[in-house]
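User: I'm putting together a teaching handout on how multi-component assemblies are represented. Below are the sequence lines for each component of a complex, exactly as they appear in our records. Could you produce the 3D structure of the whole assembly as C-alpha coordinates, so the students can see both representations side by side? Please keep the chain order the same as the input.
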Amino acid sequence: GAVVSQHPSRVICKSGTSVKIECRSLDFQATTMFWYRQFPKKSLMLMATSNEGSKATYEQGVEKDKFLINHASLTLSTLTVTSAHPEDSSFYICSARATGTGRGQETQYFGPGTRLLVL
Amino acid sequence: AQKITQTQPGMFVQEKEAVTLDCTYDTSDPSYGLFWYKQPSSGEMIFLIYQGSYDQQNATEGRYSLNFQKARKSANLVISASQLGDSAMYFCAMREVDSSYKLIFGSGTRLLVRP
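Assistant: Of course. Below is the structure of the complete assembly, with chains in the same order as your input.
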Protein backbone atom coordinates (compact mmCIF):
# COMPACT_ATOMS: atom_id res chain seq x y z
CA GLY A 1 0.00 0.00 0.00
CA ALA A 2 0.90 3.66 -0.21
CA VAL A 3 3.29 5.04 2.38
CA VAL A 4 2.87 8.21 4.37
CA SER A 5 5.56 9.38 6.76
CA GLN A 6 5.44 11.83 9.63
CA HIS A 7 8.28 13.61 11.33
CA PRO A 8 9.00 13.77 14.17
CA SER A 9 7.44 10.67 15.68
CA ARG A 10 7.45 12.26 19.11
CA VAL A 11 8.41 15.64 20.44
CA ILE A 12 8.65 17.24 23.85
CA CYS A 13 8.73 21.01 24.00
CA LYS A 14 8.41 23.83 26.48
CA SER A 15 5.25 25.84 26.81
CA GLY A 16 5.27 28.84 24.50
CA THR A 17 7.40 27.33 21.77
CA SER A 18 6.23 26.33 18.29
CA VAL A 19 6.41 22.83 16.91
CA LYS A 20 6.34 21.83 13.24
CA ILE A 21 5.13 18.39 12.16
CA GLU A 22 5.74 17.16 8.62
CA CYS A 23 3.55 14.77 6.67
CA ARG A 24 4.91 13.29 3.45
CA SER A 25 3.42 10.95 0.89
CA LEU A 26 6.40 8.87 -0.19
CA ASP A 27 5.26 7.03 -3.28
CA PHE A 28 2.24 8.92 -4.54
CA GLN A 29 1.00 12.45 -5.07
CA ALA A 30 -1.60 13.79 -2.70
CA THR A 31 -3.52 16.93 -3.57
CA THR A 32 -5.41 16.56 -0.31
CA MET A 33 -4.05 15.76 3.11
CA PHE A 34 -5.89 15.72 6.40
CA TRP A 35 -4.75 16.48 9.93
CA TYR A 36 -6.32 14.70 12.89
CA ARG A 37 -5.92 14.91 16.61
CA GLN A 38 -6.46 11.96 18.90
CA PHE A 39 -6.76 12.03 22.67
CA PRO A 40 -5.97 8.88 24.68
CA LYS A 41 -8.56 6.15 24.22
CA LYS A 42 -10.59 8.40 21.93
CA SER A 43 -11.37 8.49 18.25
CA LEU A 44 -9.73 10.67 15.64
CA MET A 45 -10.94 14.23 15.43
CA LEU A 46 -10.44 15.96 12.10
CA MET A 47 -8.73 19.30 12.52
CA ALA A 48 -8.34 20.50 8.97
CA THR A 49 -8.19 19.60 5.31
CA SER A 50 -5.00 20.63 3.56
CA ASN A 51 -5.11 21.27 -0.17
CA GLU A 52 -1.99 21.72 -2.25
CA GLY A 53 -1.54 25.31 -3.33
CA SER A 54 -4.46 26.72 -1.38
CA LYS A 55 -5.49 27.58 2.15
CA ALA A 56 -6.45 24.83 4.51
CA THR A 57 -10.05 24.30 5.50
CA TYR A 58 -10.43 24.10 9.26
CA GLU A 59 -13.11 22.27 11.19
CA GLN A 60 -15.35 24.16 13.53
CA GLY A 61 -13.68 24.97 16.80
CA VAL A 62 -10.11 24.58 15.52
CA GLU A 63 -8.06 27.76 15.80
CA LYS A 64 -6.49 28.67 12.49
CA ASP A 65 -3.84 30.86 14.05
CA LYS A 66 -2.95 28.17 16.55
CA PHE A 67 -2.58 25.32 14.10
CA LEU A 68 -0.92 26.59 10.95
CA ILE A 69 -1.09 24.30 7.94
CA ASN A 70 0.97 24.60 4.79
CA HIS A 71 0.63 22.25 1.82
CA ALA A 72 3.51 23.42 -0.32
CA SER A 73 3.77 20.48 -2.69
CA LEU A 74 1.92 17.37 -3.77
CA THR A 75 3.89 15.28 -1.31
CA LEU A 76 4.29 17.52 1.74
CA SER A 77 1.98 19.13 4.27
CA THR A 78 3.12 20.69 7.53
CA LEU A 79 1.25 21.41 10.75
CA THR A 80 2.75 24.01 13.06
CA VAL A 81 1.45 24.22 16.60
CA THR A 82 2.20 27.80 17.55
CA SER A 83 2.82 28.92 21.12
CA ALA A 84 2.16 25.43 22.37
CA HIS A 85 0.56 24.88 25.77
CA PRO A 86 0.16 21.72 27.85
CA GLU A 87 -3.42 21.31 26.62
CA ASP A 88 -2.04 20.94 23.09
CA SER A 89 -0.37 17.71 24.15
CA SER A 90 -1.89 15.00 22.01
CA PHE A 91 -1.35 12.50 19.22
CA TYR A 92 -1.41 14.22 15.84
CA ILE A 93 -1.88 12.08 12.77
CA CYS A 94 -2.06 12.99 9.12
CA SER A 95 -3.53 11.19 6.17
CA ALA A 96 -3.16 11.60 2.45
CA ARG A 97 -5.70 10.89 -0.20
CA ALA A 98 -4.28 9.27 -3.28
CA THR A 99 -5.14 11.10 -6.49
CA GLY A 100 -6.04 9.49 -9.76
CA THR A 101 -8.81 7.20 -10.84
CA GLY A 102 -9.89 3.80 -9.72
CA ARG A 103 -10.43 2.29 -6.36
CA GLY A 104 -7.21 3.75 -5.00
CA GLN A 105 -8.77 7.14 -5.23
CA GLU A 106 -11.10 6.22 -2.41
CA THR A 107 -8.42 5.36 0.07
CA GLN A 108 -6.77 7.56 2.63
CA TYR A 109 -3.40 6.45 3.89
CA PHE A 110 -2.32 7.49 7.34
CA GLY A 111 1.03 8.51 8.68
CA PRO A 112 2.40 6.87 11.84
CA GLY A 113 1.46 9.86 13.98
CA THR A 114 3.35 12.33 16.16
CA ARG A 115 3.10 12.35 19.94
CA LEU A 116 3.42 15.89 21.24
CA LEU A 117 4.07 16.61 24.90
CA VAL A 118 4.14 20.22 25.99
CA LEU A 119 5.68 20.83 29.39
CA ALA B 1 -25.73 14.97 9.19
CA GLN B 2 -23.63 11.90 8.71
CA LYS B 3 -22.85 9.71 11.66
CA ILE B 4 -20.93 6.52 12.45
CA THR B 5 -21.74 4.36 15.46
CA GLN B 6 -19.67 1.59 16.99
CA THR B 7 -21.56 0.20 19.96
CA GLN B 8 -18.91 -2.21 21.21
CA PRO B 9 -16.21 -0.43 23.22
CA GLY B 10 -14.39 -3.72 23.79
CA MET B 11 -14.47 -7.25 22.46
CA PHE B 12 -12.73 -10.53 23.30
CA VAL B 13 -12.16 -13.38 20.89
CA GLN B 14 -10.34 -16.66 21.20
CA GLU B 15 -7.38 -17.14 18.91
CA LYS B 16 -8.30 -18.83 15.61
CA GLU B 17 -11.97 -17.96 15.98
CA ALA B 18 -13.91 -15.42 13.93
CA VAL B 19 -15.15 -12.13 15.34
CA THR B 20 -17.58 -9.49 14.10
CA LEU B 21 -17.15 -5.82 14.92
CA ASP B 22 -20.30 -3.79 14.52
CA CYS B 23 -20.67 -0.50 12.68
CA THR B 24 -23.81 1.37 11.73
CA TYR B 25 -23.98 4.59 9.83
CA ASP B 26 -26.45 7.27 9.03
CA THR B 27 -26.52 9.29 5.85
CA SER B 28 -29.13 10.58 3.49
CA ASP B 29 -26.82 10.59 0.51
CA PRO B 30 -26.92 7.60 -1.86
CA SER B 31 -23.19 7.82 -2.61
CA TYR B 32 -20.73 7.14 0.18
CA GLY B 33 -17.76 5.03 1.12
CA LEU B 34 -17.15 2.95 4.22
CA PHE B 35 -13.75 2.09 5.65
CA TRP B 36 -12.26 0.04 8.44
CA TYR B 37 -8.93 0.91 10.00
CA LYS B 38 -6.85 -0.91 12.60
CA GLN B 39 -4.86 1.04 15.16
CA PRO B 40 -2.34 -1.00 17.19
CA SER B 41 -0.77 0.38 20.33
CA SER B 42 1.93 2.05 18.24
CA GLY B 43 -0.70 4.49 17.00
CA GLU B 44 -0.47 4.04 13.27
CA MET B 45 -3.74 3.73 11.37
CA ILE B 46 -3.71 0.73 9.08
CA PHE B 47 -6.23 0.61 6.24
CA LEU B 48 -8.05 -2.73 6.20
CA ILE B 49 -10.97 -2.66 3.82
CA TYR B 50 -13.23 -0.37 1.78
CA GLN B 51 -16.84 -0.70 0.64
CA GLY B 52 -18.51 1.66 -1.78
CA SER B 53 -22.21 2.27 -1.46
CA TYR B 54 -22.80 1.08 -5.00
CA ASP B 55 -20.65 -2.03 -4.74
CA GLN B 56 -22.78 -5.07 -5.41
CA GLN B 57 -20.63 -7.51 -3.49
CA ASN B 58 -19.28 -7.40 0.03
CA ALA B 59 -15.64 -6.38 0.15
CA THR B 60 -13.05 -8.93 1.19
CA GLU B 61 -9.33 -8.54 1.87
CA GLY B 62 -7.65 -11.70 3.09
CA ARG B 63 -9.00 -12.52 6.54
CA TYR B 64 -11.11 -9.37 6.58
CA SER B 65 -14.56 -9.13 5.10
CA LEU B 66 -17.17 -6.46 5.32
CA ASN B 67 -20.75 -7.52 5.89
CA PHE B 68 -22.49 -4.68 4.09
CA GLN B 69 -26.23 -4.48 4.68
CA LYS B 70 -27.31 -1.33 2.94
CA ALA B 71 -30.96 -1.39 3.96
CA ARG B 72 -29.96 -1.69 7.61
CA LYS B 73 -27.12 0.81 7.18
CA SER B 74 -24.61 -1.49 8.72
CA ALA B 75 -21.07 -2.30 7.70
CA ASN B 76 -19.74 -4.87 10.12
CA LEU B 77 -16.15 -6.06 9.92
CA VAL B 78 -15.60 -9.81 10.13
CA ILE B 79 -12.14 -11.07 11.03
CA SER B 80 -11.71 -14.76 10.42
CA ALA B 81 -9.16 -16.99 12.14
CA SER B 82 -8.15 -14.37 14.69
CA GLN B 83 -4.48 -14.00 15.47
CA LEU B 84 -2.80 -12.52 18.54
CA GLY B 85 -1.56 -9.68 16.35
CA ASP B 86 -5.15 -8.67 15.65
CA SER B 87 -5.40 -7.20 19.15
CA ALA B 88 -5.86 -3.48 18.52
CA MET B 89 -8.39 -0.68 18.22
CA TYR B 90 -10.61 -0.88 15.18
CA PHE B 91 -12.28 2.17 13.69
CA CYS B 92 -15.13 2.30 11.22
CA ALA B 93 -15.24 5.42 9.06
CA MET B 94 -17.42 6.94 6.39
CA ARG B 95 -16.32 9.25 3.64
CA GLU B 96 -18.29 12.41 3.21
CA VAL B 97 -19.80 12.68 -0.21
CA ASP B 98 -18.77 16.23 -1.00
CA SER B 99 -15.52 17.05 -2.71
CA SER B 100 -13.61 17.25 0.55
CA TYR B 101 -13.34 13.46 0.95
CA LYS B 102 -13.27 13.88 4.71
CA LEU B 103 -13.59 10.77 6.86
CA ILE B 104 -15.95 10.59 9.81
CA PHE B 105 -14.81 8.07 12.40
CA GLY B 106 -16.72 5.97 14.88
CA SER B 107 -15.65 5.77 18.50
CA GLY B 108 -13.75 2.54 17.96
CA THR B 109 -13.78 -1.00 19.31
CA ARG B 110 -10.86 -2.46 21.24
CA LEU B 111 -10.33 -6.09 20.28
CA LEU B 112 -8.35 -8.44 22.47
CA VAL B 113 -7.43 -11.83 21.10
CA ARG B 114 -6.93 -14.46 23.79
CA PRO B 115 -4.39 -17.25 23.28
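A couple of points students might notice: Chain B is about 0% helix and 50% strand. Chain B touches chain A through 22 residues (CB under 8 Å).
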